[in-house]
Please model this.
Amino acid sequence: MNHFDTVAAIATALGEGSIAIIRVSGSEAIPIVDKIYRGRQRLTAVDSHTFNYGHIVDPETGEAVDEVFCAVLHAPRTYTGEHVVEIQGHGGIVAVQRVLRLVLNHGARLAEPGEFTKRAFLSGRIDLSQAEAVIDVIRSKTDMAMKLAMSQVEGQLSGKIRSLRQKMVEMMAHIEVTIDYPEHDVEDVTTQHVIAEGRQVAAEIDRLLAGATTGKILREGLKTVIIGKPNVGKSSLLNALSRSNRAIVTDIPGTTRDILEEMISLRGIPLNIIDTAGIRETEDVVEKIGVERSRSAMNQADLVLFMVDASRPLEAVDQELLAAVRHYPTILIQNKLDLPRRVELQELRQLAEGMQIVETSVATGEGLEQLEAAVEELFLSGGIEGKEGTYVSNARHVALLEKGRREMLEAIQSAELGMTLDLVAVDVKNCWMSLGEVIGEAVGDDLLDQIFSQFCLGK
Ligand SMILES: Nc1nc2c(c(=O)[nH]1)N(C=O)[C@@H](CNc1ccc(C(=O)N[C@@H](CCC(=O)O)C(=O)O)cc1)CN2
Ligand SMILES: Nc1nc2c(ncn2[C@@H]2O[C@H](COP(=O)(O)OP(=O)(O)OP(=O)(O)O)[C@@H](O)[C@H]2O)c(=O)[nH]1
Ligand SMILES: [Mg+2]
Model:
């Protein structure tokens, strides 16, 4: 890939929209589009950051292909940092494709997925963690996930990383001076200084990592598993919460045979809700597999919704399950309240030992509000509301931060054990490099290609 040629792609979703945009970026963007544009002025003559009305015309036949606006944007104040022309035409698949083909026939190359953002990175307008956050914005499924990704696009994480790396540069400079001028005999002082600063850096990395779980949850959804005996109303609950009819509901116990997942936004909180097969001892082989899967789904759960049928007396299975879910954040749901009650609330309270209990009738919709409120409360009390915080949401960033943290702890340990300062400096430098990789300083081409290929075409 030549980073300096001119590339083009359709930037809007394919399909019938009212407007479609073709982006062209690179040193020749303006003259290339000018060859197929007819308007009041040549695009090569218009001011930067202007919107120009005209037509895209096939210069060979003179045929007008589309009526357009062309935004002309001179480098460097553009998305890619290069010269950009955005051709805004009528939506619809045929016209856009014809305009794109003309642009490609007049000197541009089709952009690879993510290439516009890659150019923004290569031109230094954004750093790597900001570029990756653009992917997250495109993919985020809920308001909160979107906010998190946007804050990263705006460079919050990068800012934190930069100031940590600055601190490490100062630590290394200190060490350097001490090694270069041994006659001053300040080794002890420097060692103490490095230990103190190193602890601060490690603590700050810890804080970023603590936020990482939150970031993962916001991006991928809080893994919420509905568990309970057959026929208590689990699938009905999934349908009610996701406002769909995805799960099959019947009055036959054992209806759900496999795991069903649905991404929903509950009061802005992303939940990845998982409906499971009712758990019971069973002779049916197929269902046995389902039951096994439910157990393992529960093992990975961030939240368990444990459901019992209040119209039937509790059985040994209920009690066994209750004992099993106790290790997870759980909300106990007593369902079928519209039917005569056969389970005493008192009895449940004793068994549930302080677990939140919500009473519902999924059939009538009663109690669902309370259930939503309970989930929200449990979630927010986990520290999610600190919206000011910087969240790390990307597995690559988490791995690098963990590596950096280990390296800094090694530096501290070496200093405490009285190792020579040049050895300590090696660990500090390693940490400095690991954190640098988060924002894309000194990363190889392979990694860049892998990151940017995750984008959509035209981004
Ligand atoms: N038509 C259109 N809409 C779009 C985009 C686009 O590329 N084209 N974007 C694409 O994803 C998003 C907007 N993101 C952008 C981010 C930076 C710059 C930009 O030109 N930055 C320059 C100059 C800023 C300024 O003028 O102050 C810079 O940071 O140097 C443009 C768009 C969403 N909407
Ligand atoms: N009366 C009443 N019936 C309900 C309620 N919730 C669910 N049901 C009914 O209970 C039956 C079982 O519901 P499902 O949602 O399939 O139960 P499940 O827990 O998914 O069952 P399995 O998939 O077999 O484990 C269906 O006939 C539902 O219509 C409720 O609140 N009240
Ligand atoms: Mg079911």
Remarks:
- Residues 383-389 have pLDDT under 50 and may be disordered.
- The CA atoms of residues 390 and 404 lie 17 Å apart.
- Residues 21, 77-79, 86, 125 surround FFO (ligand 1) (CB under 6 Å).
